[in-house]
Design goal:
The protein is mainly alpha-helical. About 75% of the residues lie in helices and about 0% in strands. The protein has helices at about 5-20, 20-30, 35-55, 55-70, 75-85, 90-115, 130-150, 165-180, 190-195, 200-230, 235-245.
Length: about 250
């Protein structure tokens, strides 16, 4: 890649990632979470494998676009699903676990990439190590996505593992926590309430700052480490970014 090609491949991911978060949750309301979330993970895995086998710059940009599209609904969908089971103050702890797991996954991904990079030139295709990283990690994710169809829970009203007493308890706790405030549908009145709520805007500004810092590290940590010592091999760079996420 030359010029701004690398930057374009990074930025194109965020276009669908931003635009399709809300539409993804609207679809999630109509489907079983075990179906929609596992389908998104599976399609994301296929696109990840695609990044490892494409041979043109246009193909890479296309794969990055679809990676952003299918990844867009995963965290919002997970939060939406958790919020249907837990009131606000119980939900916070579960969200902390979700975010910590995300950071640990990045650390483990770096360790796995360090090991896979040893396969440089291996196999009948003689693919470079970076290609094997996408192919192997995408393949493992595809298998996990299939299992998620049976591992991810559905809405409390349709979850077969809950008893009637359990459903009633969850409903009472959520209703007691919500009080008189309800947001069952997205219409003009509800949208106006959201846009005029100062807390929404303050939270948005804080979250933008958090995401800027987080994604700067996620995307550019290997490049920064490489620039600090150009003699480092790609494998060494992968190993050195692991402590950041730990």
């Amino acid at each position: 890649m030359t010029g701004n090609d690398f930057n374009v491949t990074l930025v194109v991911f965020f276009v669908p990632f931003i635009l399709f978060e809300v539409p993804s949750n609207l679809v999630l309301r109509k489907l079983a979470p075990s179906t929609w979330l596992s389908l998104e993970v599976f399609l994301l895995a296929i696109c990840t494998i695609g990044q490892g086998v494409i041979t043109t710059y246009g193909g890479l940009v296309t794969m990055r676009f679809f990676v952003g599209l299918f990844e867009a609904g995963l965290v919002p969908g997970s939060v939406f699903l958790l919020a249907s089971y837990y009131p606000r103050f119980d939900l916070q702890w579960r969200l902390n676990i979700l975010m910590v797991a995300n950071a640990l996954a990045s650390a483990f991904g770096g360790l796995l990439a360090y090991a896979i990079a040893c396969m440089d030139g291996d196999g009948p295709s003689h693919y470079k190590g970076w290609r094997w990283i996408f192919i192997i990690e995408g393949s493992v994710t595809a298998v996990v996505a299939i299992a998620c169809k049976w591992l991810v829970v559905d809405w409390p009203a349709t979850a077969t593992w809950l008893t009637d007493a359990d459903r009633a308890l969850i409903t009472r706790r959520i209703a007691r926590d919500a009080g008189t405030c309800r947001m069952d549908r997205l219409n003009a009145k509800a949208l106006r309430r959201c846009l005029l709520d100062w807390k929404v805007w303050v939270t948005t500004i804080v979250y933008i700052g958090t995401c800027n810092s987080t994604y700067s590290v996620n995307l550019f940590a290997p490049t920064i480490v490489q620039q600090l010592n150009p003699t480092f091999s790609p494998r060494h760079v992968q190993a050195l970014v692991i402590p950041i996420f730990v």
